[in-house]
Amino acid sequence: MTNSQLKRVVVTGLGAITPIGNTLTDYWQGLMNGKSGIAEITNFDPSKHACRIAGEVKGFDPQDYLDRKEAKRMDRFAQFGVSASLQALADSKLVINDLNAEQIGVIIGTGVGGIKVLEDQQEVYLNKGPSRCSPFMIPMMIGNMASGLTAINTGAKGPNTCTVTACAAGSNAIGDAFRLVQRGYAKAMICGGTEASVTPLSLAGFASARALSTRNDEPQKASRPFDKDRDGFVMGEGSGILILEELEHALARGATIYGEMVGYAMTCDAYHMTAPVPDGAGATRAMELALKDGGISPEQVTYINAHGTSTAANDVTETKAIKKALGDRAYAIAVSSTKSMTGHLLGGSGGIEAVATLMAIANDRIPPTLNLDNPDPDCDLDYVPYESRPLEIDVALSNSFGFGGHNVTLVFRKYR
After folding, report:
1. Can you supply one Gene Ontology CC term for this chain's record (predicted)?
2. β-pair type (39-40, 53-54)
3. CB of 147 within 8 A of CB of 111?
4. More exposed terminus of the chain, fewer Cβ within 10 Å: N or C?
5. Domain contains 407
6. CATH code (residue 375)
7. What average pLDDT does this structure show over 18-32?
8. What SS3 state is found at 373?
9. In a 10 Å sphere around its CB, with 0-12 CB exposed, 13-18 middle and 19+ buried, how is residue 20 labelled?
10. What CA–CA distances, in Å, run from 251 to 205, 247, 256, 261?
11. Distance between CA 105 and CA 58 in Å, rounded?
């Protein structure tokens, strides 16, 4: 398709269930106030674990959105994804009915899927035998169920799939949904990421890989992207969902527009199972290609919501990549990591971070990076430490990188 044939794509609804707030308003206020959602784990006894902290979602009741029986047949990751989708749909005021259902689709990514159900059913299998395993185990466990159940609960009958690209899954979902609307395969898409992998087995696995912070006595200071004293990332959980819509369709119904999505790119390092390529070449190309896709020059970029995991491997590499992709302009761009407040939601991170990026554009305010007390000398950009900052934002990027070498950049801009 030629550029003149591509549809303009806007964001008309947002939903968020996060460690710092279970609504869009609460999440945004938490970011603006520099609120940390990281604390000692409460959903199970973490005393035997080297890492005992996480960004848990607090006060979430799936029955605020779902029938009690239906909620019981969902893993927590699917509860989050469906609930955030219903939030976003309500925020957009988009009504799905028999006339438009086939033109509205769903893509929700997850890195791990229903691991809590898998762990619980393994205990049942070992202690009570195979005949006692739940008949709902498989549909509760598989990663596509957040997308499938969202369609069931909204009536969306258009394109439906699930991205599973580790910590890039939520951003891949948004990017793939963007392509479908841009090319006319859907009028609107419900898209984003969800994760609920703060479980005993997941925690043990990441800790064994020496990826997690063990600053257990100071949980709110444990996630410290770009800081010299960082010692690993902190797991989080939750979901962030966007409603992407064809511009003409949105204008025809008088929708509120948070911003316009203009670019998307994905690349692969093809280097290592877990480590990024040291020179950041894959991340650099993702940013360069996404900017090219959107017809955006480096001089137009105002803000980058960094992947910013608080690991030695990511923070320096991402900084290198930003400087290579944006040149001298990199030093004039505000960069922040909202993972300093929420922890790392793995496959859900791209969703809540895209929500944060769009709210930053809509409100002309940059979320801060917490705990940047002693900046790493190799991390020398403007990371907006401690406090949010008012700044007129035209174009913003959201970066996500995942195990396997997946790199994704999304480009949003103010709607004009």
Report:
1. cytosol
2. antiparallel
3. no
4. C
5. no
6. 3.40.47.10
7. 98
8. coil
9. buried
10. 47, 6, 9, 15
11. 29
Catalytic machinery residues: 167
Measure the CA–CA gap between 310 and 339, rounded to whole angstroms: 8
Host domain of residue 183: 1-402
Element (H, E) at 303: strand 301-305
Beta bridge partners of 399: 409
CB-based burial label for 230 (10 Å; 0-12, 13-18, 19+): buried
Count of helix runs (H) and strand runs (E) in the chain = 13, 14
- Quote helix, strand, coil % in the chain, to nearest 5: 40, 20, 40
Residue 2: pLDDT band with limits 50, 70, 90: confident
User: Which tens digit of pLDDT belongs to each residue from 130-173?
Assistant: 999 999 999 999 999 999 999 999 999 999 999 999 999 999 99
Mean pLDDT (whole number) for 18-29 = 98
d(CA 104, CA 160): 9
For residue 40, the model assigns a pLDDT of 98
Asked if residue 411 belongs to a domain, the reply is no
231 assigned to some structural domain: yes
Structural tokens at position 18: 């996060």
Buried b (16+ CB within 10 A) or exposed e, 45-67: ebeebebbbbbbbeebebeebbe
Question: Does residue 130 lie in a domain region?
Answer: yes
**Cα(41)–Cα(53) distance, rounded to whole angstroms?**
5
Q: What is the largest distance, in Å, between two alpha-carbon atoms of the chain?
A: 63
pTM (two decimals) = 0.98
pLDDT band for position 4 (cuts 50, 70, 90): confident
Report how far residue 81's alpha carbon sits from residue 235's, in angstroms, rounded to the nearest whole number. Answer: 17
Cβ atoms 294, 268 nearer than 8 A: no
Distances (CA, A) of 325 to 192, 223, 286: 25, 26, 9
Residue type, 34: G
106 in Cβ contact with 82 (< 8 Å):
no
